[in-house]
């Protein structure tokens, strides 16, 4: 199913969030096994896509493990089809450079997302991500989205945080949609702070305003720690989907609890594991088994070690 088909369905989209050094192929496949319906790559840097061939090949393989890249291995994981659909997330503030970088990957992903939410110091120093949410940069981000949507035949989306003041969030989202953003994902917290990027509860009222005020789908991100959070979020905001990040790092089975009603009966795995927190050793071994079946060049040992540490350290 194409991504636009996901949003056309009566069922909400359940998305695994883009996470730096965490949204690798094997982990995305794992979340898809257990209920996620859409996954994102980690944030990709245009300069590296353009000028670092190793970086480009690694991330192409993570998006599209069937790629026939010269000199790379051809062993694939058994759940190969679960690598798609995938959204390639890019960052930056240079329109032409972003477009040229995306030309390198457009044949390997199902949509391209512009990161307007990264709160890290590197984003502040290089002026991208959440640091483009100020009104003075709105024409710039509009031009990026417009250029992408006019250049490529696949959907373009945006992932944003709250503007400051938050009342500016809906006007910005409207401009992004008019520029060509096929959907908007809102992490309903303020973004331009490395220290407080997850401080306090998400302002879900702003997600609700976006859903009521936009003509494109809206994904809600934030305040999801349990199944009940998902139901409350969707009921209150009316959003077309939910995006989950850190909770999945410790418990990839988490996605199955929010899709249980959709798949029980058609997916025996969900009936077997519903409501059970995975044993950290078992889920680590499953993740590593997926890694072993992925194409050579797509697996990063340091990232794999981080995932296993998350599984072991996770506490409900």
UniProtKB/TrEMBL annotation:
EC number(s) given by UniProt: 1.3.1.88
Pfam families: Dus
GO BP annotations, alphabetical order: mRNA processing
Key word NADP present: yes
Source organism of this protein record: Thelephora terrestris
Protein's name in the database: tRNA-dihydrouridine(16/17) synthase [NAD(P)(+)]
Essential cofactor(s): FMN
Top-level taxon: Eukaryota
The keyword Glycosyltransferase belongs to this UniProt entry's keyword annotation: no
InterPro entries: Aldolase_TIM, DUS-like_FMN-bd, tRNA_hU_synthase_CS
Reaction(s) the record says it catalyses: 5,6-dihydrouridine(17) in tRNA + NADP(+) = uridine(17) in tRNA + NADPH + H(+); 5,6-dihydrouridine(16) in tRNA + NAD(+) = uridine(16) in tRNA + NADH + H(+); a 5,6-dihydrouridine in mRNA + NAD(+) = a uridine in mRNA + NADH + H(+); 5,6-dihydrouridine(17) in tRNA + NAD(+) = uridine(17) in tRNA + NADH + H(+)
Family, per entry: Belongs to the Dus family. Dus1 subfamily.
Broad enzyme group: oxidoreductase
């Amino acid at each position: 199913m194409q991504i636009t088909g996901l949003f056309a369905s009566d069922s909400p989209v359940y998305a695994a969030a883009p996470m730096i050094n965490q949204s690798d192929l094997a982990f995305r496949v794992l979340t898809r096994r257990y209920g996620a319906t859409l996954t994102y790559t980690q944030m990709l840097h245009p300069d590296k896509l353009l000028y670092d061939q190793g970086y480009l090949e690694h991330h192409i393989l993570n998006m599209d493990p069937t790629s026939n890249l010269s000199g790379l291995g051809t062993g694939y994981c058994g759940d190969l089809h679960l690598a798609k659909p995938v959204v390639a997330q890019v960052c930056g503030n240079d329109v032409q450079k972003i477009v040229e970088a995306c030309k390198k990957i457009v044949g390997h992903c199902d949509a391209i997302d512009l990161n307007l939410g990264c709160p890290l110091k590197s984003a502040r120093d290089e002026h991208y991500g959440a640091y483009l949410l100020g009104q003075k940069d709105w024409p710039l981000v509009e031009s990026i989205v417009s250029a992408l949507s006019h250049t490529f035949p696949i959907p373009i989306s945006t992932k944003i945080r709250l503007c400051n003041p938050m009342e500016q969030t809906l006007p910005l989202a409207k401009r992004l949609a008019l520029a060509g953003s096929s959907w908007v994902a809102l992490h309903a917290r303020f973004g331009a702070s490395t220290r407080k990027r997850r401080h306090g509860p998400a302002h879900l009222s702003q997600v609700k305003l976006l859903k009521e005020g936009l003509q494109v789908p809206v994904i809600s991100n934030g305040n999801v720690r349990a199944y009940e959070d998902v139901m409350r979020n969707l009921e209150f905001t009316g959003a077309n989907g939910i995006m989950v990040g850190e909770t999945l790092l410790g418990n990839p089975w988490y996605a199955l609890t929010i899709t249980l009603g959709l798949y029980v009966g058609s997916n025996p795995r969900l009936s077997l594991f519903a409501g059970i927190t995975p044993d950290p050793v078992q889920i680590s071994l499953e993740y590593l088994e997926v890694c072993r079946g992925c194409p050579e060049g797509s697996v990063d040992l340091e990232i794999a070690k981080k995932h296993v540490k998350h599984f072991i350290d996770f506490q409900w």
